[in-house]
Design goal:
With 357 residues, the chain is of the alpha+beta class. It has 2 domains: 107 residues, DNA polymerase, domain 1, CATH 1.10.150; 157 residues, Topoisomerase I, Chain A, domain 3, CATH 3.90.15. Strand 5 and strand 6 form a beta hairpin. Helix 5 packs across helix 10. The relative contact order is 0.10.
Length: 357
């Protein structure tokens, strides 16, 4: 059962259970709650202390979602042992008392600190600056930044950071020239330049269907393009004889493989933002590597792409995608006032209470 979730999720559950066990030991309670007729009040006290920080790992107050997650770990650990989940009522739903308590915490929470989408000109500026550098680490970071934007990737899929998502590998890439598949491991490097289409194949990436392929054509820009960016990255890997299983987010320094990190991409983006922040309405603290997924989704929204299509490309399984999109973007809202005037002129069909003349 532990293997049914990611390693990081399993470790998080272990840590949450240990905190719950310590709490129960302090109050001389059986952590399985088998001898408690109504365990919900105990869970409520635990949730309150976690919320206020006395039980939280940081020893500081936490958000409602963090409290909810800790309670979920406790309930699911007991369920994994074959015991009833103490959070649930007879109907299998979260107990009303816990539900109201968590709802209260949610209302008290400060506004969510959502990542800001990054305008394309700023991304292009970052790419140009990085490619002008002599450092391969910057080249690779800029390449991964570009691919993350166009493919709406999660950080663990385009960096070397530990994550629930699996990074894409060299062997997951296909280049096409027209309808002809190019042998990316053996074709002359000049032949790679003829590619007009690039695909990534999902293996164990989060929310991806194994074996499914997503592809993009050239963007029309001579550098900020998914196809040309992938060609640059493949050439670097080929020149250093990288094996097929090499993560795409790899670059070589002194012939030793290194992984692009989220911090390197964040530093690249923030450096560019500090120089151009007056043009785009936010400062460098508003963005990070995690902004790239939102940036790609926002660019599609501003291009009037249907939200269902955006959700398919980004592999969102629910309306959680909407948290990434911002109505602050001027292109989204530009024509709404005039369209409201035209759309607001209408007649209602009369019902029986409307007098006839």
């Amino acid at each position: 059962m532990r293997a049914g979730v990611t390693a990081s999720r399993a470790r998080s559950a272990d840590s949450a259970w240990q905190r719950w066990a310590d709490f129960c030991a302090l109050h001389h309670l059986d952590p399985t709650l088998q001898d408690i007729r109504d365990p919900v009040p105990i869970l409520q006290v635990y949730a309150y202390r976690y919320r206020t920080g006395s039980l939280a790992p940081s020893q500081r107050p936490v958000r409602s979602r963090t409290v909810e997650d800790s309670l979920r770990h406790v309930g699911q650990t007991l369920a994994a042992l074959g015991s009833p989940d103490p959070r649930l009522n007879a109907a299998g739903r979260i107990d009303f008392r816990l539900q109201r308590q968590l709802s209260c915490y949610s209302r008290q929470d400060p506004p969510p600190n959502r990542v800001k989408p990054i305008p394309v000109p700023l991304l292009m500026y970052s790419l140009t600056a990085a490619l002008a550098s002599a450092h391969f680490s910057l080249h690779a970071a800029a390449n991964m930044m570009t691919l993350a934007f166009f493919f709406l990737l999660r950080p663990g899929e385009y960096t070397g950071a530990a994550s629930d998502s699996t990074p894409f590998r060299f062997q997951d890439v296909t280049l096409l020239s027209g309808n002809t598949k190019l042998p990316i491991f053996t074709a002359p490097l000049t032949v790679l330049d003829t590619a007009t289409f690039v695909t990534l194949e999902f293996t164990t990436q989060k929310n991806g269907v194994r074996g499914e392929v997503i592809g993009l054509a050239r963007s029309g820009n001579p550098t900020f393009c998914p196809v040309l960016t992938m060609i640059r990255q493949i050439k670097h890997l080929r020149l250093h004889h990288a094996p097929p299983a090499t993560p795409l987010a790899t670059y070589y320094h002194n012939d030793r493989p290194q992984r692009v990190t989220s911090a390197e991409i964040t530093n690249l983006l923030r450096s560019a933002t500090r120089l151009t922040s007056h043009l785009y309405g936010f400062n460098s603290r508003n963005i990070s590597a995690r902004s790239l997924r939102a940036s790609g989704a926002m660019a599609l929204l501003c291009a009037h792409i249907d939200t269902d299509i955006i959700r398919l490309i980004g592999r969102w399984r629910s309306d959680e995608m909407l948290r990434y999109l911002h109505v602050q973007a001027k292109p989204v809202m530009r024509n709404f006032s005039s369209r409201m005037l035209s759309g607001g002129s209408y007649h209602l069909l009369p019902n029986t209470s409307v007098p006839m003349f």
